[in-house]
Amino acid sequence: MITMYYGSKMQTLDEKAKEFAIKFHDETGEVRKYTNEACITHAAVVAMLVTCTPHTNEIIAAAWLQNTVERTNATLEDIKQNFGPLVSSYVKFLTDTSKQEDGNRETRKAIDRERLSHAPACVQTIKLASLIDNAGSIIKHDPKFAKVFLAEMRLSLDTLKYGDKLLWNLANNLANTKIHNAEN
Questions:
Q1: Are the C-beta atoms of residues 160 and 130 closer than 8 Å to each other?
Q2: 13-51 residues labelled b (16+ CB within 10 A) or e (exposed)
Q3: What range defines the domain where residue 111 resides?
Q4: How far apart are CA 125 and CA 132, in angstroms?
């Protein structure tokens, strides 16, 4: 277990990552689309799911930080300076690199799946946890978009085959959920 001093208290790397993620996400004021919960709640669920798999403090730190570069002013260099090159490399894999100018949603998602296909198993596990949390919210609150999201999720599962098998099976079950009451 890596322990370091941060401020005036001793913290593990994953505790420091949690604090860092909360700080940067709180600064944005961004909330989750369907529930208006603070965005950090997604990272908390992802980190909790990943703790149910074989993990290290670096992996849990990356789970807390997985959306930080995409959604806040934090940079990969900030992550590297605060958490080291390993955590930074995990977060880099988890950060979507596709841009609007790359094409439509289908094209952008294919670009991001390709990047994740080369990610270490632990990064794929974090991505599975993220998909699980997002799918639950989307299925509950937006059945019309859920059809699109779940189709994308099924494609992602082919890419995430090295992630934790238990989370992969859970994600696969969610991805194959039959959506009712959705507008056609």
A1: no
A2: bbbbbbebbbebbeeeeeebeeeeebbbebbbbbbebbe
A3: 3-175
A4: 11
Amino acid residing at 45: V
Number of domains forming the structure of the chain:
1
Task: Read off φ and ψ for residue 177, nearest 5 degrees.
Answer: -65, 135
pLDDT one-digit tens code per residue, 12-43: 999 999 999 999 998 888 888 888 898 899 99
pTM score of the predicted model: 0.91
User: How far is the C-alpha of 163 from the C-alpha of 53, rounded, in Å?
Assistant: 10
Tell me the C-alpha distance between 67 and 21, whole Å: 9
Cβ neighbours around 170 below 10 Å, total:
17
pLDDT tens profile 158-167: 999 999 999 9
Nearest-angstrom CA–CA distance, 85 and 77: 9
Residue 55: inside a domain, yes or no? Answer: yes
Residue at 112 is within a domain: yes
Residues facing residue 31 across a β-bridge: 38
| Strand partners for 6 | 9
Asked whether residue 141 is domain-assigned, the answer is: yes
